[in-house]
C-alpha cells in the first residue's frame, strides 16, 4: 500500500478518480442528485409557500387558531402554491429553488419544458406521493433517481450548467 501511494505521488501511476460532476456531465439528461432536489424544494417552500400561508393566516383569517381549524384554508394554500409551481414549470422549466441549484424540469420525450396537463398531473401526483412513505422514498431505491411523479409524467429534473 505504501509503495502504491509513493508511485502515485511521484506520477508513475495515474489514479482513476471519478466524481459525481463528471458522471452528470457524461449524460446531460440524467436525473439531478436527490440532495439538490430536496434543497430546491425547501427553498420553494420558504420563498413561495410561506408568504401564501402568512397572507392566508394573518390577513385573510383571524390568526393561527382559525387557520389550523380550517381544512379549507390549508387546501386553498396548497392549491395556490401548486398553481404558482405549475406556472413556473410551464413558463421557465424552473422554480426559484430549482434555479438556485441549477436544476431544470424537462419532458423525457421532447427534452424541453413540460406541458400544462403534465405539470398539473405532476403536482397532483406529488401531493399523493408526499403523503405516502413508500412513494416518497422511491428515488432512493432507483438507479435513475426518478420520483413517482417523474415516472408517471415521463419527466426528469436535470442538472444544468451554472
Automatic annotation (TrEMBL):
<keyword id="KW-0812">Transmembrane</keyword>
<keyword id="KW-0472">Membrane</keyword>
<dbReference type="GO" id="GO:0005886">
    <property type="term" value="C:plasma membrane"/>
</dbReference>
<keyword id="KW-1003">Cell membrane</keyword>
<feature type="domain" description="RDD">
    <location>
        <begin position="32"/>
        <end position="153"/>
    </location>
</feature>
<feature type="transmembrane region" description="Helical">
    <location>
        <begin position="41"/>
        <end position="61"/>
    </location>
</feature>
<dbReference type="Pfam" id="PF06271">
    <property type="entry name" value="RDD"/>
</dbReference>
<dbReference type="InterPro" id="IPR051791">
    <property type="entry name" value="Pra-immunoreactive"/>
</dbReference>
<feature type="transmembrane region" description="Helical">
    <location>
        <begin position="120"/>
        <end position="141"/>
    </location>
</feature>
<dbReference type="InterPro" id="IPR010432">
    <property type="entry name" value="RDD"/>
</dbReference>
<keyword id="KW-1133">Transmembrane helix</keyword>
<feature type="transmembrane region" description="Helical">
    <location>
        <begin position="73"/>
        <end position="91"/>
    </location>
</feature>
<protein>
    <recommendedName>
        <fullName>RDD domain-containing protein</fullName>
    </recommendedName>
</protein>
